[in-house]
Prior knowledge:
The protein is α/β, with parallel strands linked by helices.
Amino acid sequence: MERARRNPLGVQIQSTDPHMTSLYDVIRSHADSVPDKLAIISELDGERSYSQLAERGAQLGHALAGELGLGVGERVCVWMVNRPEWVDASVACAAAGLPTVPTNPEWTDGELEFVLRHSRSRAVVCDTSLAERALQLRGRIEGLDHVIVVGEDVPKEARSIEALIEQAPADAGGRLPEIPDFVPGQLMYTSGTTTGRPKAVQMAREMLLTSVDYEEMFGCGASDRSLFVTPLFHGNGSGGLTCTLRYGGSAVFQRRFSASSFWNLVDRTRPSLLFTLAPIVNILLGLPPSPFDRQHGMRLFVALGSGPNAEVMEERYGVPVIDWYGMSEAGSGTYTRLDEERRPGSAGRPFEGSAMAILREDGSRCETGETGEVCFHAESIGFDGYVEDREATDLALTDGYFHTGDLGYFDRDGYFFFVDRIKDIVRRGGENISSLEVESYLRSHPKVADIAIVGKPDPVLGERLVAFVAPTQGTQGPSAADLAEFAAGGLAQFKIPEEVHAVDELPRTPTGKIQKFKLRELL
């Protein structure tokens, strides 16, 4: 019997199976109805049909629960680049009731050790290139019992993912454990761009399936083939992948984004949708014009954080661009609808039933057009705090609201505009200056390849603006005087940086966010 349910943002989801509460349930259902349909297509690592994905997921899930003895609710860290085994591990953990902990393959040992200890992970599934480091961490972390390796040359102290799958019984799907409703599906760690310490957000199993409805929003269906060029450990990548599999589409991905091979991949795999992030948008727009710009065959780009570049993309590539605003803690807040007017620089309007609010420092609601902190009603989004982090939880949850630390406003028609992170606002002499505004203007300087603006403490003004600049190739970059002269026609005097530091490159996360806390440490 068909039933309807609503996620915390009010988007109605239709389900024909009341027991379909995990990614494994979804894959198994498609394996029964369209067994040979391609579920995933990897640039370098082959393909998986829905039947293959269901079989491998069940067998690996059985091995994790049976041979390795992982109990329902115990956590498994997934530490690898984008590849089919990332999906195998996710499906297997969903089948066995093991919350996954997706992690960044670029992390240092110290960064990963923090997450492994904090999450109390029992196992790590990783690439061969990361195996020795994972084994060293296993030796230091109590409770981390297993290292499962993807690829060739598996160390003897580790387990091969392929061997675990091959040794599992053919009827593994019928031997999986019962999973209580309260067992979460995932621990998603934030990027840690503000403090340098990631925080863990616990995601319910069903919420991973229903937090966004691409079918209803964009008309997505089983005939669509979606290209992901973002890391699958990031919520944008994993969420989009899960949603694509939910409606029976096919997902295409690269191990890592490569601008040089991007359009060749598009030409070979012929996706209909592109899911990406603003930094990758900027890279693509920086490529020389190409015949592929209008011959790609895609019908929609979903580009999180594309903002002002959305219109530029639409003009260059001849396809609608959807912008988005959201986060792991609160799900999706706003998006640009296909059937509505676009407002330049806006991330669209709230989802139906969205729990968003723009608040002043005293907790009162802002007026239309007034900038304040973006907040969500905590009860409505189902966020009850960060896992084992009372300090961060107390800072984020106040008077029934989840405080995002972002600044934004709504215009008179309800369109949302992101202004900046609160900690990235520079307060100079009583003026609040958006670092993003200054960066956006100065990035067009011919000697600026990349730029970040931060505040430097000042005993008189409170803060002064400092620019960190990655120079364009073949230049030494602009001086403070160069930037001041360039900015004079477009920025108020008090918004012009008084100090400039040249750097080879800005510290960024793999999803493109500038790690400004590292720049502040330099000051």
